[in-house]
Amino acid sequence: MEEEIKRFLKATDMKEGHPTEAERQIPPPPPESPVPQDARVLRLPEPGLLPDKEVNFLEMIEMRASVREYSDKELTLQELSFLLWCTQGVKMALENGGTMRTVPSAGARHAFETYLLVHRVEGIPAGLYRFLALGHALLPIANGEEADEALLPCFRAQNMVKNSAVTFLWCADYRRMNHRFGPRSARYIYLDAGHVCQNLYLAAYTHRIGVCAVGAFDDGPLNAALGLDGENDFAVYGATVGKVI
Questions:
Q1: pTM for the whole structure
Q2: Which three-class secondary structure string do you get for the chain?
Q3: Contacts from 4-9 at CB under 8 Å and sequence distance 24+?
Q4: Phi, psi values for residue 41, rounded to 5°
Q5: In this structure, how many other beta carbons lie within 10 angstroms of the beta carbon of residue 220?
């Protein structure tokens, strides 16, 4: 076993005698990053507006695959709303600062903020957005040209990101998980990322939408491009999405 792995496992081991912020009765951080008061957000349609699809679950599991090439057809706004709901939809807010969502998360902490690099979504200008899970809406951050210039160089598979209809980027607010779990939080955040991305794969498959998980990116530049500090807030995982050819 490499020394880096040994150090990680030791640093994130469950330790006695180190009370967490929750155990010290420190109030939890908010379940969503703040939104500027003067922000103009884009309300998304209800995800249930898409027609129901009869799905053979075993077939869906067997046929799930990464799709790296996409048609030039747009995603509809309803399809994007559906995918966002299936990956981070909020079902209930909890009194302890957590949320119950459509994916599992350790302690219901749900540390992720979802950023979207949009290229082809019907009714939405190309650009960078943040998904506001509590209100099921999008917060515009940058226009398409600015977003591509800042974000595309951060990825090893630049062409795949550039040719996607939209790229999902899941970025962690470490404070949400740390409040409950302390150093062990690092393990849970990366486990949670897998839950979220698998939901995206399976939800997209039901509507003939392709997905490819993306983990090969330059952390520092990507965090900077998203306005994250790289310590308390940082990019964890991503996925390109587009209509199947």
A1: 0.95
A2: CCHHHHHHHHHCCCCCCCCCCCCCCCCCCCCCCCCCCCCCCEECCCHHHCCCCCCCHHHHHHHCCCCCCCCCCCECHHHHHHHHHHHHCEEEECCCCCEEECCCCHHHCCCEEEEEEECCECCECCEEEEEECCCCEEEEEEEHHHHHHHHHHHECCHHHHHHCCEEEEEEEEHHHHHHHHHHHHHHHHHHHHHHHHHHHHHHHHCCCEEEEEECCECHHHHHHHCCCCCCCEEEEEEEEEEECC
A3: 8/186
A4: -95, 155
A5: 12
CA distance 241 to 211: 5
Q: Convert the pLDDT of each residue in 110-148 to its tens digit.
A: 999 999 999 999 999 999 999 999 999 999 999 999 999
Q: Which tokens go with 240?
A: 């390109």
192-226, pLDDT tens digit by residue?
999 999 999 999 999 999 999 999 999 999 999 99
**CB-based contact 77:113 (threshold 8 Å):** no
